[in-house]
Amino acid sequence: MLGLSAGEGSISGTGVSSYPDPIDAKLRSVLADVLALSPERAAAIVPETPLFGAMPELDSMAVAGLLTEMEDRLDIIVEDDEVEGALFESYGSLLAFARAKAGA
Amino acid sequence: MSGLRFDRYAVSSGWESLLRHGPTDRPAVLIVLPLFHEHDRLRRFAGSLMRALARFDIATACADRPGENESLRPLPSGLEAWHASTKAAASATHAFATISIRTGALLDGAMPPERRYRFAPATGGALVRDLRRAAGLALAERGGAAGAGGGIDFGGRTIPADLVDQLALAEPPAEVARTLRLEGDARPADARVAGELLWRRAESGDDPQLAGTIAADFVDWGRACAAI
CA B131, CA A68: separation in Å to the nearest integer? Predict the structure, then answer.
């Protein structure tokens, strides 16, 4: 007899973040996961860290993937007219946008 | 690619390619990859997953859909052709379960609910937003402007408007036996696993450890519910 499974478990890893702000923690992990940043590089990101034009991994295709992944993990919808160059100037500008969209 | 080999299966008007691992005289697990660019990025991982399942003595198959990968057909004008080809591949391989990945889950209605195993299932709406955004950004780089609707020019071809419209509304069937997601993805799941976000990467990558984790979890689940 095949049954539908219930309950939830974690098979490996803990996923615990050391960032007290959950939006910051989620956005940082989205950026690290989409751009395949090392944990050291992800941890070194500060609000002033420049993004588009400074991170070679962040080309236009990666921008699209980053926005879609942000939508998924932050449970937001990003409209096309909200996407402008200034959004990706720095980590701080992207974080401010994510906070505003998530209502935090 | 050791152990992997190409076969074919019949679709409504001819044949499509089928990647296989393991004996063909017993039921297989059908790996259903996501659509479009995510398919290409996960193709290599599919090979790893098939090899990982082979270590548990499980036969696997992964079918090309019409219009994708090695297929010589144009993209279909609607999802029905892909539902039908997934059913045909399941039938040709005597599939006892599907492991669908991302938007592959939109097509796992080919299998009864208790035999649907999913990894990181995704909606068609999210895929269409991603495709439109990527196409729009690429066009903007060349100085153009994208229209709001219709077909999507992406990756050197046009995804037909009717297919885009159907995809935008498509959801994985509600009933599913087991769902795994990556850590950091808060959406409903039976378990979360550590792994690489391969479908967002610019290059086709691999994560053999993740493949091994999924294979072991699939086998545990299959044995617990007597599917294997």
Answer: 10
The residue in chain B having the minimum alpha-carbon distance to the alpha carbon of residue A28 is: B184
For B116: left if phi > 0, alpha if psi spans -120 to 50, otherwise beta; the answer is beta
One-letter amino acid of B218: F
Closest partner residue to A68 (CB to CB) among B133, B184, B226 is B133
Residues of B in contact with A57 (CB under 8 A): 202
Query: Chain B contact for A68, CB < 8 A?
Result: yes
Quick one: average pLDDT of A47-72?
Answer: 88
* A18-56 tens-digit pLDDT: 567 889 999 999 999 999 898 899 889 999 999 988 888
Q: Do B185 and A65 touch (CB under 8 A)?
A: no
Count of CB atoms situated within 10 Å of the CB of B94: 14
Q: Measure the CA–CA gap between B150 and B165, rounded to whole angstroms.
A: 8
Q: In whole angstroms, what is the distance from residue A14 CA to residue B61 CA?
A: 32
How far is A38 from chain B, CA to nearest CA, in Å? 12
Tokens 């402008």 belong to A84
Any CB–CB contact under 8 A between B220 and chain A? no
Treating both helix axes as pointing N-terminal to C-terminal, what angle do A91-102 and A60-74 enclose, rounded to 10 degrees? 40
Q: Among B190, B194, B201, select the one facing A8 at the smallest CB separation.
A: B190
Mean pLDDT in chain B? 93
Residues 6+ apart with CB under 8 A from A23: A74, A95, A98, A99, A102, A104
